[in-house]
Design a protein that fits this description.
The chain has about 425 residues and is α+β, with helices and mostly antiparallel strands. It is built from 17 helices and five strands. The protein folds into three domains: about 200 residues, no CATH class; about 80 residues; about 120 residues, Heat Shock Protein 90 (2-Layer Sandwich), CATH 3.30.565.
Length: about 425
């Protein structure tokens, strides 16, 4: 560090920075009076219960005040913590208790520290100014007035404080040291308050870093799975086109070509009869090909989902299911398109698995929105009365469902004891 910069750093507490630090520390005093108010309301041991209760109820207000205090006085922005809805769920979140710790303990300690810093500065100013009133105030011996406290003479300072000239010199030195030390006290207090506020009022950085690391690992692990799933989906589309619509179209073309060659040598009446048979067969093949193409396109991305929303799209799935399905959809607003698509395919594949493997007589699908820690969550519950025993490790169907949910940071849980019933529980964030 250059010498000039080191000098500026050493002298910074004695300029505007020191005044700013002192004002910042003093601003902690008003918000720390919650204990004093509790004592005034309940002047007994109940104040130690009332104080934390009041602080717990006022956490959002107190936190906004302190964030504004740091922003306006220090230019420091403390990130806001997402509000939890409903309010009673805030008691289950660790950020609430960290903020309560700051308001009850840290803020109170910093307010006392600010008062101590102000007292040091005041005492230093009084002690340094002793020579001014030591010589300015006349003594009783020189003015003819009665001596102070019955003393035979001397100045008021020597008579009241009971010290001599050498003692006053030491007091002046002590006051000077206090004034030199006080700005560093303010600097230390500001640094401690800033660190405590960043760790307690803002998000949990350690937890966020751990969560970010976990998400990066999950993304790195699922990237290959997404590529494999996309490749498998491409092969499925090719297989469906080759074995379904393509074969029907080839058969249609062959029948029409054969009819074109053979009908020329037949009598007109027989030509008309054979032509009607060929037309009927061609019409049936064309309708079957159209139906298969429609199912294939619907499997890629249902148009009804984009046009009319998740409720109408799931109603179509329930109506086409090979077993009775009871559907309940309670949504106040539409989720993100990617989330709606994942919800649609999860329900579709879950009902397909039930029809193939569960030997169930009925199924229930419930879709609702509920508040979460980081925003609203789309909750999907699929239940059947089948034989149970579904295991994600025995087949790729449930693994695919879990991968679909994880693609939008969702979770999937399954409870399928032997003998049933089987319950599939999926939670998807409504906004990406």
């Amino acid at each position: 560090m250059p010498f000039s910069r080191a000098v500026r750093t050493a002298l910074a507490p004695y300029g505007r920075q020191g005044l700013r630090d002192l004002v910042f520390l003093a601003s902690a005093v008003p918000t720390a009076n919650i204990w004093a108010f509790a004592v005034l309301v309940r002047p007994s041991g109940a104040a130690f219960v009332l104080g934390p209760v009041m602080a717990l109820l006022l956490i959002p207000v107190l936190t906004r005040i302190h964030r504004s205090r740091f922003r306006s006085l220090l230019g420091l922005e403390i990130p806001a913590v997402p509000q939890v809805r409903p309010r009673w769920r805030a008691l289950t979140v660790e950020t609430t208790w960290r903020q309560l710790l700051y308001h009850l303990l840290v803020n109170t300690v910093m307010a006392l520290y600010a008062l101590a810093t102000v007292c040091v500065i005041t005492c230093g100013l009084v002690l340094v100014s002793l020579p001014a009133w030591y010589w300015a105030v006349p003594s009783g011996g020189t003015t003819g007035e009665p001596p102070v406290l019955g003393a035979p003479g001397g100045t008021p300072a020597t008579l009241v404080l009971g010290i001599n000239h050498h003692g006053i010199t030491w007091l002046i030195v002590l006051g000077s040291l206090a004034l030199v030390f006080a700005p560093w006290m303010a600097l230390f207090g500001r640094m401690m308050d800033t660190r405590a506020a960043a760790g307690l009022l803002g998000p949990n950085r350690a937890r966020e870093l751990a969560e970010l690391t976990r998400r990066v690992e999950d993304l790195a692990e699922s990237r290959a799975e997404v590529v494999d799933a996309a490749d498998a989906e491409r092969r499925r589309i090719e297989r469906d086109l080759h074995d379904g619509a393509q074969q029907r179209l080839v058969s249609l073309a062959m029948n029409l070509g054969l009819a074109k060659r053979t009908l020329k040598n037949l009598p007109p009446q027989e030509q008309a009869a054979r032509a009607m048979v060929v037309i009927d067969e061609a019409h049936g093949e064309a309708q079957a090909a159209i139906a298969e193409l429609r199912d294939l396109v619907r499997g890629l991305h249902p148009v009804v989902l984009e046009d009319r929303g998740l409720d109408a799209a799931l109603s179509g799935i329930a109506a086409r299911a090979p077993l009775p399905v009871r559907l309940q959809v309670r949504l106040e607003r539409r989720a993100a398109p990617a989330v709606e698509a994942v919800a649609y395919f999860v329900v579709s594949e879950a009902l397909a698995n039930i029809a193939k493997h569960a030997r169930a007589s009925r199924a229930e699908v419930a879709v609702a929105e509920r508040p979460g820690v980081n925003g609203p969550v789309l909750v999907i519950t699929v239940t059947d009365d089948g034989v149970g025993g579904a295991d994600p490790g025995k087949g790729s169907g449930l693994v695919g469902l879990r991968q679909r949910a994880a693609s939008v940071d969702g979770t999937l849980q399954i409870n399928s004891p032997l003998g049933g019933p089987t319950t599939l529980h999926v939670e998807l964030p409504c906004a990406l």
